[in-house]
Amino acid sequence: MTRFGDFAPLCTNTPSYTWCNLFYRQLSSDSSLKSILTGLSADANSAPVGINPICGIAKAGTTIDGPHQGTEKSLGNIANIVVCAVSMLVILGLIVASQKRKAAVGRVELRNLLILYFLTLPFQLLTTGSFLAQGSTALVALTAIHAGLVAAFFWALLMNALIATQKIEDGTPAALVPYLLFCAAFFAGTTYIAFDVGLGITTALGPSNDPRELRSIPLFVLTSIWPAVAAILYFGIMTYIVLAVLNETRPMWYYILSAGLFVLSQLAWFLLGKVICEGSTSKVDGSFVATILETAAVGVLYLAWRSITEDSWDDDPYPMYPS
Hints:
Elements: H1 8-13, H2 20-28, H3 78-100, H4 107-128, H5 137-164, H6 173-199, H7 217-245, H8 250-279, H9 287-307
Helix pairs in contact: 2-6, 3-4, 3-9, 4-5, 4-9, 5-6, 5-7, 6-7, 7-8, 8-9
């Protein structure tokens, strides 16, 4: 029976599920547990992301004998690699554009949010790209840092909503100090826990008492529950600001579209991943679709912010400072 914090179903049924890299190291580093790694996961030098996945993309330059596998040497997760690279260029453009809006409320905070998302992309490229051998220390380190950046990103997202309430003046130490301190705390805490899961330093925050369970409640909370909670709170706060404070409806459609794209990205990852993987004989999976939708969600979020803030000191499309 699946319990809260179990990663086994995700690592088996969801191709390229990033955090499975940590659990592979858990099992492969213990000679008494290596026998658990079977099928596509049996050989660390060619194993795809996941733990005994039903379908997965083999490590670049290798082939695997198994169901839904092609005969040519793998190119790695080539589709997601390309999408991550293009997304980095798109987000870089948004960072530059946000910096030019000198008078916009929350400019610094939104720019930092975009920077954090930008930083997650090269780590996603490396941790899901099937470049590095499963169980390697390098892959564990990259995955742990990636987890920390994801947790920090969602704190930054929530903080952007809190700044938009104008209860705290944007760009001031009162806004930036908690913004940056909690970003650092989420990053450091999640990165440590992820390292602990992968390297088995302790059993308090890291792997379960029985590593075969592939269970870590702290990691599950910080990489799955926390992002969902932060996204829901952000949407709720921005809905209140746009509809109740600004008394506008047009910007709300941007926020609805962004939320819809984010939900679709998660559905693409968890529901379409295996379907696409099997249909393409393990050449691509749902991760590239999820990345496209996630980047689109962030882009629309920028448009939403742009629609409720002034471009220059003389412009004021909506009354962000009601008297």
